[in-house]
Amino acid sequence: MVDSEAAPPEQPAHMAAQVPHADLPHVIVVGAGFGGLAAARRLGRLPVQVTLIDRHNYHTFTPLLYQVATAGLEPEEIAHPVRPILRDLRNVRFRVAEVSSVDLAARRVLTSDGELDYEYLVLAAGSASNFFGLHSIEAGALGLKDVDQALTVRNRILGCFEAAAWEADATRRHALLTFVVVGGGPTGVEFAGALRELIDHVLPHDFPGMDLSESRVILVEATDGLLAPFAPRLRNSALQTLRAKGVDVRLNTAVDRLDGEALYLKGGGQIEAATVMWAAGVRAADLAQAIAAPRGRSGRLLVEPTLQLPGHPEVFAIGDMAGAEENGAQLPMLAQVALQGAECAVANIARSLSGQPLLPFRYRNKGIMATIGRNAAVAQIGPFKFTGFLAWLIWLGLHIVTLIGFRNRVFVLINWMWNYFSYDRAVRLILGGANAADPPAPPHESP
Amino acid sequence: MVDSEAAPPEQPAHMAAQVPHADLPHVIVVGAGFGGLAAARRLGRLPVQVTLIDRHNYHTFTPLLYQVATAGLEPEEIAHPVRPILRDLRNVRFRVAEVSSVDLAARRVLTSDGELDYEYLVLAAGSASNFFGLHSIEAGALGLKDVDQALTVRNRILGCFEAAAWEADATRRHALLTFVVVGGGPTGVEFAGALRELIDHVLPHDFPGMDLSESRVILVEATDGLLAPFAPRLRNSALQTLRAKGVDVRLNTAVDRLDGEALYLKGGGQIEAATVMWAAGVRAADLAQAIAAPRGRSGRLLVEPTLQLPGHPEVFAIGDMAGAEENGAQLPMLAQVALQGAECAVANIARSLSGQPLLPFRYRNKGIMATIGRNAAVAQIGPFKFTGFLAWLIWLGLHIVTLIGFRNRVFVLINWMWNYFSYDRAVRLILGGANAADPPAPPHESP
């Protein structure tokens, strides 16, 4: 082959050039979520070389994904590229790749772009939606687990309104303007509240000729109440607030299947809706199933009290992916659990390196909270319980200070102030090509 | 079919509800770019009912697409949803749809979502990349004509650096880090300059172990100079500035074909590159070819001096889509031509409504400018010619004040100030799924 270009200069193998401390033990961290990113940053202070792997080149502030889905925030306000976060840690390198499996015996991570050997491994690949075997719903419902899914949800919502503006058939239009949220946990509650406010306060300006009163947000929950982990008073407050905002909350209602026509409920009945959002369950990421290790409930990897995999003291699993237990029950899938797990796992790697005995993981519950649209939230911090506007202010402050990156904080603050005072949303772009926002084939295709 | 839901309330036909002045003449505007949006806003003051149609729900400030492609700006900073722009115009409605054709005889627009009849039609669908029959390049090169393409370019650039970080083979890595820009017009020059600065000033912080000096930005131009419409002194200044910034500018170099291995040049020679960006030609949008009307150079619709289609006085064509002439030459594809064309077309519709004679289009050249990265630009405004930092300040000010939307202006200004003083870029997210940034199959698959 003739190459008219100057030959590239000869260089040492590139991978070696990326590892300034090639003689030190190699620690691989899988996942740049709350747990994995915290682990990589802490490992940066130890005498090890670290490789952090994620399929995205950014860390996502997942608690605010619902704001992206409801056009309140833009992706870059809740996502931050990983490389600048790790810039000052000379012994940490980052790789974008999909981790497909781990060969525990060979101590090797298998990725879409090659294999890497490790001396220590921290598994922090997070979670995925759990559809509990409801295949038709898995195929037809939207999720809210990452930025791409959040943009898909936003495109669908706005696309349904655009399509409804063309639609003369009242039944079809009704289905286009019906949004069902399955699951009454924090994600479902926060998303339903924000969507109701988008429809009530923002979209009427954009669609002045449309009767938006026929648009419905229906929250379907299988048990007898919302926000299961919260105290009864807060659960009740959330239910009342959400209903007062106009969300049609249906308790004790389980779903069965979904097709182009409707969402069918267990025990009969159906809801004609072009959009079904699934927030009813999570399970450990697929990677947990690809590893030859025992798993517990929700597919989470079983771990020793020290967060090590049984029989593999060099492998730690943290966060949503691991089933760390407290008083015989799995710890919840929360950012706090992942962050504290990272702290424990890295401390134990340091102890292992220096030959000290490892310490068991102790989770300190710093509190839980959830917003219900504008001005309202529930928060439970130790013995203290807050509702309404005060809880919302607490939620707002905590989320802004914990967002990574100063510029993100400034932009998010400007956006939220704007939304609050103007009752508007910043920008409502349908991105991703001409068909990105196409709703599924409308129900009632033939009369 | 059993419907357990309350039947939707009976309503008047929805389309009618969207047209508050159904007795007035119906004007359809195709395209919400500079020309179409300006036409719709001006038509909002006439005694007509207006339907504006675009395949996106947003207007794009296309002169800054290259900034999105090089991670300097985010999509929502240069794109603005159409509906809020039209909010106060009660006789203008907006529809998201792809216009596939126009039945001139029946006075009917055919779209992906139905048909609409008109009394007047303004065609402003803009332009698309012109590959001049180079099919392999059309299939393999990236474009920069809309926000989605700009995001694809950004994903590709960042993805190539992520892939290069894994790549031990020097020849493959060299190809991953080689970016070819075809075409030395304003788009090619601005993109190449911004890309070189991204690589030289921002990415070294993200890839501390990588030798970025082997990364090349090559600008290939078939003629003997850059920026053909500018005065010789400015063209020369642009060439020198771009080369001083490190762009490898190759004049008198035409391209022939592209495969997974390389970009092959006319007359022999080739460049191994994973990324080829096409900025060498534009033509009228596909819609122009779907209309039974005569076309001129670049597929642009021929128009009378009044901007009417020959034989169809009720149809006006403006902007990139129309070949309005001045002194026997087609007017350039510039935002100014589209904006002034909209003004003329709407004035002529008003004259037609009141039975007055129509006026011919007179283009007033307000000047042209192009940036060459940070701190440098060329600008030609009437008899005045500017280069360097002064031209760049003029460019900056003009682009900020003409961006639609107050908030966009504030955010863009913050972003630019940040970039200027920190030599950093805001956010470098690879969005759009795990494979969004995958470069094409690397060249030299077998040694």
Instruction: Tell me the number of helical segments of chain A per DSSP (H or I, 4 or more residues long).
Output: 14
Structural class of chain A: alpha/beta
With strands numbered from the N-terminus, the spatial order across the biggest sheet of chain A is: 5-2-1-9-20-19
The biggest sheet of chain A amounts to:
6 strands, mixed
Ends distance of chain A: 63 Å
List the helices and strands and how they pair.
The structure is a homodimer of 447-residue chains.
Chain A: H1 14-17, E1 26-30, H2 34-43, E2 49-54, E3 58-60, H3 65-69, H4 75-78, E4 79-81, H5 82-85, E5 92-96, E6 99-103, E7 108-111, E8 114-117, E9 120-123, E10 127-129, H6 135-140, H7 147-166, H8 170-176, E11 178-182, H9 186-206, E12 216-220, H10 232-244, E13 248-250, E14 255-258, E15 263-265, E16 270-271, E17 275-278, E18 282-284, H11 286-289, E19 308-309, E20 312-317, E21 325-326, E22 329-330, H12 335-353, E23 368-371, E24 377-381, E25 384-387, H13 388-402, H14 406-422
Parallel strand pairs in A: 1-2, 1-9, 2-5, 9-20, 11-12, 11-17, 12-13
Antiparallel strand pairs in A: 3-4, 6-7, 7-8, 10-18, 14-15, 15-16, 19-20, 21-22, 23-24, 24-25
